Automatic annotation (TrEMBL):
NCBIfam families named among the record's database cross-references: HAD-SF-IA-v1, HAD-SF-IA-v3, PGP_bact
GO cellular component terms attached to this protein's record: cytosol
GO annotation terms (biological process): carbohydrate metabolic process; DNA repair
InterPro entries given in the database record: HAD-like_hydrolase_sf, HAD-like_sf, HAD-SF_hydro_IA, HAD_sf, PGP-like_dom2, PGPase_prok
Family membership: Belongs to the HAD-like hydrolase superfamily. CbbY/CbbZ/Gph/YieH family.
Protein name (record): phosphoglycolate phosphatase
Pathway(s) it belongs to: Organic acid metabolism; glycolate biosynthesis; glycolate from 2-phosphoglycolate: step 1/1
Record keywords: Carbohydrate metabolism, Hydrolase, Magnesium, Metal-binding
Enzyme class, first EC level, given as a word: hydrolase
SUPFAM superfamilies: HAD-like
Chain's gene name: gph
Organism: Paucibacter sediminis
GO MF annotation terms: metal ion binding; phosphoglycolate phosphatase activity
Cofactor: Mg(2+)
Catalytic activity from the UniProt record: 2-phosphoglycolate + H2O = glycolate + phosphate
Amino acid sequence: MSLELMAEPLLAPARLLRAVLFDLDGTLIDSAPDLAGAANEMRAERGQAPLAYELLRPMVGSGARGMLGVSLAVTPAHEDFESLKAEFLSRYERRMLQETAVFADVPPMLAQLRALNLPWGIVTNKAERFALPMTRALGLAEAAGAVVGGDTTPHAKPHPGSLLEAARRIGVAPEHCAYVGDDERDILAGRAAGMLTVAASWGYLGQGGRVDAWGADFIIDEPLALLKLLQQA
């Protein structure tokens, strides 16, 4: 059934969906090239050869901790971790929009959500320092009903607090929201918030386990598949 012919509300199992929330990196935008670039800048500064993009991409969802772990073999227990993290974030901030872009199928997906009068928002573990200017520059913030960063609330995902805050800002009860993300922490947070959970398999996915083991209600392979899922649900 085409979107144009839809006259009935969008129904998920045992619930009415009134809003869709999204993770940012790996779900709506491809930020891996700039994050990998910042990591390789640090390696170059230390006389080390760049790492292949394929090694760095899966760790994007883990932020500075993941990128430093792969690129410099540094964990949070290392005595220099905090200073290295600050350096990484500073380098990333200077180049965070150099190669980052919205995934090609995301704008038409969001346009169709608007056509269906379904508000949407963004919930990311990216700090507001990065998330707010980035979503504005990429044309996402103006249309989003909420942009909630990793430091907007006291706890980042997988804690459900940031998702609950986004639902509050949009004005929709959590049980009437779906949350779409590309990391197991997204699914854990969505489930803890009482939301319908959708795993985005086109994203970065991390290094832990298979997507179908995360416990998501649905798995989709491309952004536009979300509309088909909502029609079928």
